[in-house]
Write a structure and sequence with these properties.
Double Stranded RNA Binding Domain, Integrase arm-type DNA-binding domain-containing protein, 3-stranded antiparallel beta sheet, DNA polymerase, domain 1, 3 domains, alpha+beta, 15 helices, hpI Integrase, Chain A
Length: 413
């Protein structure tokens, strides 16, 4: 209800009663409060512009009190007087806000990541997401077209300041991929990371820790076969040098991926870094380790289930921690080091580099050649993996010997 002056009061609004139909209480200047049958109260503004009568939503009472509703009415009437339709302006502002939110660095990074998820292994995807997330705290909500080279450099310098120089370089690389995607989709005109060449501290490349000398490898193998910890950890340690798979693939090995009868471990494409299935031939020694382990974990999904949560694979630190217990510090040997060990020794033993690289699941850039190699090299890889397992047995049994057998056959050059 309104007073004798034709204006609403807070008391009148509070005491106003709702009816079976909407009730309008006018305040003047086109402002009115609409009482709905369900008890809601909405502020509206009735106005005319360009010869048409229109309505503008002002807010909900009591979130928007009487005084604030009048202020919004006065602002809207000023805009109308200038020929601006407040309703049309609000819709345009909303469209602009939506467009701005879709063109921020964070939004485009998320969109780009969604596309990459189809071809990246989960662990690689998670790493890319983490790197871009480090940038998002500073430039994530900025429109990507407005981000300058100094803006990106400031974020990367923060990462550098924490001592993570390599991470800063990787974050720069991922940011560049997002900027180039924005350019391709018409939401940016240039990649500011291109101007940052030489702006970050260079990364001093350090090779992964690994033992490669036969005598050192022999000592490591004897230590592994003498490990007295968890049986699953002991089995993982024994398989690491025999299979030299990526540590993440080894710990996530599933019984359903193993065909012991045909001596193969088929790692699904979704688990592989390059998103294509990888076959690991199993030597008799590897099958023996798995056969001994099957009574313990064969009824579970994972060959190496976690101790705390058997529904998940063992921790990524399990093998490295076991190596520490055996006396091998991280600057001497790591779980990933078994790949370097095998690559170094197999090359020195004369096996064809292409066969070794395919067994390591390193990507072949030429797609046609890659298909050919997969078919051609499997037979040679089976021979190589058997010879490699026999060589490791020879080293373990005769640590004083430096003889390198098995340098023969089609697998050698």
């Amino acid at each position: 209800m309104a007073t004798s002056s034709g204006k609403l009061t807070s008391v009148a609004i509070k005491n106003a009663k709702h009816g079976p139909k909407a009730v309008r209480l006018f305040d003047g200047g086109g402002l009115y409060l609409e009482l709905m049958p369900n008890g809601s109260k909405y502020w509206r503004l009735k106005y005319r512009i360009h010869g048409k009568e229109k309505r503008l939503a002002i807010g909900i009472y009591p979130e928007v009190p009487l005084a604030e509703a009048r202020e919004k009415r006065d602002e809207a009437r000023k805009a109308i007087k200038s020929g601006i339709d407040p309703s049309a302006k609000r819709q345009a502002d909303r469209r602009l806000a939506k467009l701005s939110s879709e063109t921020t660095f964070a939004a485009i990074a998320e969109e780009w990541l969604g596309l990459q998820s189809r071809k990246l292994a989960p662990v690689t995807y998670a790493k890319a997401e983490w790197l871009l997330g480090m940038l998002g705290s500073d430039i994530g909500q900025r429109p990507i077209a407005e981000i300058s080279p100094p803006d990106v450099l400031a974020v990367l310098r923060k990462i550098e300041a924490s001592g993570r120089h390599e991470t800063a370089h990787r974050a720069k690389q991922k940011a560049g991929q997002v900027f180039r995607y924005a350019i391709a989709t018409g939401r940016a005109e240039r990649d500011p990371t291109a101007d940052l060449r030489g702006a970050l501290s260079p990364v001093v490349s350090m090779p992964r820790s690994a033992l490669t000398k036969p005598a050192d490898v022999a000592g490591l193998l004897r230590a592994i076969w003498g490990y007295e910890g968890q049986p699953t950890t002991a089995a993982a340690l024994k398989l690491a040098p025999l299979l030299f798979a990526r540590p993440g693939n080894l710990r996530a090995m599933e019984w359903g991926e193993l065909d012991l009868e045909n001596a193969e471990w088929r790692i699904p494409a979704g688990k592989m870094k390059m998103r294509e299935e990888h076959v690991v031939p199993l030597a008799a020694q590897a099958i023996e380790v798995l056969t001994e382990l099957r009574p313990l974990t064969g009824k579970r999904k994972f060959v190496f289930p976690g101790v705390r949560s058997p529904s998940r694979p063992m921790s990524e630190n399990t093998v490295n921690a076991a190596l520490r217990r055996l006396g091998y510090e991280k600057d001497v040997m790591t779980g990933h080091g078994f790949r370097a060990l095998a690559s170094t020794r197999l090359n020195e033993m004369g096996w064809a580099p292409d066969v070794i690289e395919r067994q390591l699941a390193h990507a072949e850039r030429n797609k046609v050649r890659a298909v050919y190699n997969r078919a051609q090299y499997l037979a040679e890889r089976k021979k190589m993996m058997t010879a490699w397992a026999d060589y490791l047995d020879h080293l373990r049994a005769h640590p004083e010997s430096n003889v390198v057998p098995f340098k023969q056959g089609k697998g050698a050059q």
